[in-house]
Design a protein that fits this description.
With about 200 residues, this protein is of the alpha+beta class. Helices cover about 30% and strands about 30% of the residues. The chain starts with a helix and ends with a strand. Strand 3 and strand 4 form a beta hairpin. It is built from 4 helices and 12 strands, in the order H-E-H-E-E-E-E-E-E-E-H-E-E-E-H-E. It has a 4-stranded antiparallel beta sheet with strand order 2-5-6-7. The protein has 2 domains: about 90 residues, no CATH class; about 80 residues, no CATH class. The structure holds zinc ion. Zinc ion (ZN) binds next to helix 3. The site of zinc ion has 5 residues, from helix 3.
Length: about 200
């Protein structure tokens, strides 16, 4: 009796899988026609599943930095035609079909069409940026819990101050920051090719 029930469930799953495939089937002639007439939707999609580990680089002047690992970090665009997700164009990847395409003698050369779904290699992933910011905020909060304070040390100019995580109150002109302020300042100036030569972020015991 139990076996029979299991089998029924499997059959159901198989049917559902078939329905999904049928929904996703589309003729390439229809895809080309839709692209040529602009009858399609481009949706942006992204995700960041990176493990971000903040810490001090003892070899490099005790500077704060992070290591990222994981390969589940991506962004790109999905093309929808007639409510079917037809293809995706992810950053650093080639265009990939998502639907079951019935070519029917047709062929497509994506380069023939002007579609606004390309991301340059340099475009940063907002989900990844947000993860960096929030993980740095969490790291800062852990440091506060361990007895550290977060400081901004004023420099001669607005963009040449320094960030400091320390248990000792600095002698130089400074202000105490919250984890959120600290993380935002870090990404405004430290992780910025224009100002990172003038800025530093150290951790001191
Ligand atoms: Zn990421």
């Amino acid at each position: 009796m139990r076996n029979k029930q299991t089998k029924n469930v499997e059959l159901m799953d198989g049917q559902i899988e078939n329905w999904r495939k049928m929904e996703k089937k589309i003729k390439l002639s229809r895809v080309i026609e839709a692209i040529e007439s602009g009858d399609y939707i481009i949706d942006y999609t992204n995700s960041c599943g990176c493990n971000i580990d903040w810490g001090v680089n003892n070899q490099y002047n005790d500077e704060l930095g992070c290591e990222c690992s994981g390969d589940d970090c991506w962004q790109g665009h999905v093309m929808k035609i007639d409510d079917v997700e037809v293809a995706q164009n992810l950053q650093h990847e080639s265009i990939e079909w998502l639907a079951d395409i019935d070519c029917d003698g047709y062929d497509i050369n994506w380069n023939d069409y002007t579609i606004d779904w390309y991301l340059g290699d340099q475009a940063s992933n907002p989900a990844h940026d947000a993860a960096l910011l929030s993980s740095l905020g969490e790291y800062c909060q852990e440091m506060i819990n361990d007895g550290y304070q977060l400081y901004y040390i004023y420099g001669a100019f607005a963009n040449d101050g320094a960030l400091l995580i320390s248990k000792i109150v600095p002698e130089a002109d400074h202000v105490v920051m919250t984890p959120v302020e600290f993380a935002e300042e870090y990404y405004r100036y430290i992780d910025n090719p224009i100002t990172d030569n003038y800025q530093a972020c150290h951790v001191e015991d």
